[in-house]
Amino acid sequence: MNNVAQEYGTALFMLASEEGNVPEYREGLAVLKKAFKDEPDYMFFISSPSVPLTARLQSITTVFSGCTHENVLNFILLLCEKGRLDCFTEAEKTFEALYDESMRVLNVRVKSAVALDDDQKARLEAKLSKAYKCSIDTEYIVDTSLLGGVIIEADDNVIDGSLRHRMQQIKEVISK
Question: May I ask the CATH architecture of the domain 104-175?
């Protein structure tokens, strides 16, 4: 991860925390993230050195004023002024990671061969929450390449309960 982007994201999170406005900043960043994703040409426009800086700053102010927190608007203006708009995505990820850490939220990705039902999801989330002693934000993915079972990715840990992994373990035991 880009150190400059981490510094920007950390500084923004610290400011939001000091003000007690972390949720508002987070929502503002989400607005920017969605806008840049939906309109990649706009990001190209405000990043382009061939467009005068004053025009780019005015455009950002016009587009985002009133729909994002004032300091989040100032943040994106600062990135534009410094020629660091390329840091936005990583800075936003740093902000989100700090938010999750402060709220004791663990992001978990669960891959399964078939969709899990609500009861299975609830039991899995309860076990993970108990094991990690925090709340869980879970993304469920159906991966048809799995033969069966699940793969859980949480906090740099991978729990591979897939049928393929179990078969590989059996194969290793037999070949010894």
Answer: 3-Layer(aba) Sandwich (3.40)
Q: Structure pTM?
A: 0.70
**3-state SS, residue 50:** coil
Q: What is the phi/psi pair of residue 141, to 5°? A: -130, 130
Instruction: Count Cα atoms within 13 angstroms, Cβ side, for 174.
Output: 6
Please write the tens of the pLDDT for every residue from 65-121.
Answer: 999 999 999 999 999 999 999 999 999 999 999 998 888 888 899 999 899 999 999
Report d(CA 113, CA 150) in Å as an integer: 7
* Residue whose entry in the numeric block shows the structure tokens 């994703």: 37
User: How far, in Å, CA of 91 to CA of 173, rounded?
Assistant: 46
CATH of 3-101, one of 3.40.640.10, 1.25.40.10, 1.20.1290.10, 1.10.520.20: 1.10.520.20
Any idea what DSSP says for residue 147?
-
Instruction: Quick: pLDDT tens for 118-142.
Output: 999 999 999 988 888 888 889 999 9
DSSP result, 3-26: HHHHHHHHHHHHHHHHHT-HHHHH
CA distances from 138 to 49, 108, 157 (A): 40, 5, 14
